[in-house]
Each structure stands twice: as structure tokens, then as C-alpha cells.
């Protein structure tokens, strides 16, 4: 695939937004990552090409260059997550496989100071709908460490299906770690995941006020 359908694109749902990652996000990205080092370190891949918490510009420039190249090749959708227009984190749909698979993997992080506001599930629901109904993917996976309860709650709230443990799947925080595979296919959300998530939030708000 020479060019990814539906990319670049900016999406929003109330105060939550997704927009393409840009080189000029470097200062916000670096400051947010440094501020959230302890929050993020246990869950991030140990990748010497993109160190997590160095203060130089090189790792960020390398990452953005790689992701933008993959986006042009139809292999990734690298978004910034925003909250009220400000940088809040990242959400990347990557490892896209076309042909008879039409599948991809999704990863995300949001600043710990913004946790608990529904930002991540809202952003993920928007991304899933865009991938299924515009880009043309059929299956999305999120592989999460068993100990990462906050991230697991995100996909569980959205109805991702748990499909088992992948032993020592990724090198995380200095060692090979097990991951739980969660997945959705297009058939799971025929009317869209964002609409489903809105209904869930409305029901939760109603039950809480009654």
C-alpha cells in the first residue's frame, strides 16, 4: 500500500482529541515524558533507539521520522492525544498488516496527571472507529502487561476481548515480559466503538446520580 487511506487526520470528541504527531511537539513530548518517568517506565519497551527519558532531541526526532515514514507506507497511524487542545500523550496504531489479515496493534500512554478523566478510552474508541470504518482494518490488538491494571481497565471498559497470555512477548523495563492479548474485530462493534463508549459513560453517570 503506497498511501494510507484516511491519513493524516485529526479527530475529536469533546475535550479529547487525536492529531498527527509533529516534529514541533518535541518540547511538550520531552517535558511530559520526563514528568511521567516513574509512571511510564514499567510499561515501555526497552528500545535503545528511542530511549525513554533522555533530555536530548535525537530520540524524539528519530521516533517521529520512523513513524511518519511508516505512515506514508501504510504501516502506522501515529497520533498525539490532546486534552483541551494541549499535549496529553500518544496513541499509535502500528504493525499494520494488509492482505488477508488487515490487522494492527495499538499502544497508548497519557500523562498521569490526567488519568481518570476518560481521556484514554475516548481516544482509543475514536482510533478504533477510524481504523475500522475509514482505513479499512478488520482487527486491532492491544498487548498489555498483566501488572498494568490501569491500561487493562481501558480496554476492558471498551469491550476488548481477552485472548490469552503471550509469554515473554516484549522487552520491557529491562527484561522479557508476558503480555495479555486483547482484541476487537469489526464485527464486535458494527455501530462503532465511540457510540458504545458514549452509552457506557451516560449509563455510569446516570447510575451514579440516581
From TrEMBL:
Keywords for the protein's UniProt record, in alphabetical order: Acyltransferase, Transferase
Classification via PANTHER family: [RIBOSOMAL PROTEIN US5]-ALANINE N-ACETYLTRANSFERASE (PTHR43792:SF8), GNAT FAMILY, PUTATIVE (AFU_ORTHOLOGUE AFUA_3G00765)-RELATED-RELATED (PTHR43792)
Keyword flag Transferase: yes
Record-given protein name: GNAT family N-acetyltransferase
Domain of life: Bacteria
Family as reported in the entry's similarity comment: Belongs to the acetyltransferase family. RimJ subfamily.
UniProt cross-references to InterPro entries, sorted A to Z: Acyl_CoA_acyltransferase, GNAT_dom, N-acetyltransferase
Entry EC no(s): 2.3.-.-
Ranges of residues in domain N-acetyltransferase: 16-187
UniProt xrefs under Pfam families: Acetyltransf_3 (PF13302)
GO molecular function, one term: acyltransferase activity
